[in-house]
Amino acid sequence: MATKSADKTLVVVQLTGGNDFMNTIVPYTNGHYYDARNKVVMKQDEVLPISDTLAMNPNAAPFKRLYDEGKMAIIQGIGYPNSNRSHFRGMDIWHTAEPDRVGNEGWLGQAIRELDPNAENVLTGVNIGMGLPRAMAVNGVPVTSVGDLENYGVMTRLEQERLREKALEAFKGIYGQAIGTGPVADYIGQTGLDVLKGADMLADVAERYESDVEYADNQIAKNMRDIARVHFADLGTRIFYTSHGGYDTHANEMPTHPKLMNDVSGAISDFMDDLEEHGKADDVAVFVFTEFGRRMRDNGSGTDHGSGGGAYIFGKNVRGGLYSEYPSLDPSDWEHGEDLQHTIDFRGIYGSLLEQWLDVDAKPIVKGEYEQISPFAN
User: Fold this and answer.
1) Closest to 151 measured CA to CA, from 195, 197, 206, 194
2) Which of 204, 262, 342, 348 has its CA 20 to 30 A from that of 80?
3) Are 121 and 143 contacting, i.e. CB atoms less than 8 angstroms apart?
């Protein structure tokens, strides 16, 4: 398709489990924060200030660098009315952009269908990880999913077949019940063929890649490096997806969350440097989201499922800064007496990404018109 955004690429990173927004973008001068958080709290003298009222988690220094360079947009208070606190349903809502009913088409799968209407390229959408995210699942839309590029290329055909079966089982287990029966079996079967075909096309991508950027030895860093490898191979991929797990911090948040912040900020920062080194930074945007925020009060060891979280957009052509409003921390404004209220609907952010970056009409995908932001420089 010859559109103005013919070569724009969107990378989506899912922080699975519900990232603690308040301990990521810290309201470090707000007394209500320190009143509500006794144990699971960022100390005022340790955070990395970005304004008079907000600071970055000190373990996310690479994010602070990107923010200072104007390459990080922070979307405050993202959510939707009557936020669902179930992981499965909450993630389902973010994947389908349908909070009021169980949707059966992923928002990115619909975008892939618009970008490649004749389903000519099984690599238009690529997931790095096991199974297939529901966000990419749409009947008749081919998507490739590959767990580990490094090893895939050296596997025998039999090993690749086994991997495909494993991926399909994971996919079936997660999505079969949600999508329903009947066409599901056909869809899963076809998906398996597409996954295998796409993975075959990626078999030699790892060995062709060269870079001076040294990614860390953790899963999200490896996944971001794999996205870079595929992107630099110029195979026509427009949408990448990957996820980083471990954010369901009901307990032991203080030892767990810092490592998560360190890993994800380092991985995205290295990815951005890699794009720059290869002259590919202009046309890639990275969107990072999580299914919900955490509650205002900690529980002594961690934080429980809440609402009013945060999302982030990174890129060379991103207008860095703060978007929407940080939710009020005043107890009289807490939702259900314990939660941050959302201040912008996530469907408006999807709309911003779809229309302003990928040049895809958002209305049929998000089922309406929602307030958008303008995070892109061009």
Assistant:
1) 206
2) 262
3) no
Q: Which of 195, 189, 193 is nearest to 172 (CA)?
A: 189
> Could you tell me which of 176, 193, 87 has the C-alpha nearest to residue 140?
193
- Helix H or strand E encompassing 241: strand 239-244
Q: Where are the alpha helices (DSSP H) in the chain?
A: 31-36, 61-68, 87-96, 107-115, 149-152, 157-179, 183-201, 205-208, 219-232, 253-277, 346-356, 363-366
How does pLDDT run across 259-314, given as a tens digit for each residue? 999 999 999 999 999 999 999 999 999 999 999 999 999 999 999 999 999 999 99
In order of their start, the domains of the chain are 9-366 (3.40.720)
Hey, what amino acid is at 237? T
- Backbone CA torsion sign across 334, 337, 340, 346: negative
d(CA 27, CA 367): 34
- Token pair of 77, please? 């208070």
What DSSP designation does 6 have? T
Cα 103 to Cα 93: distance, rounded to the nearest angstrom: 8
Q: Render the burial of 226-252: b for 16+ CB within 10 Å, e for the rest.
A: bbbbbbbbebebbbbbbbbebbbbeee
pLDDT of 124 strictly over 60: yes
Q: Is the predicted pLDDT of residue 191 greater than 70, yes or no?
A: no
User: Cα angle at 305 between 301 and 307, to 5 degrees?
Assistant: 130
Residues for the chain: how many in total?
Answer: 378
Which pair of tokens denotes residue 47? 């955070």
Percent pLDDT > 70 in the chain is: 88
Closest CA to 218 of 265, 275, 286: 265
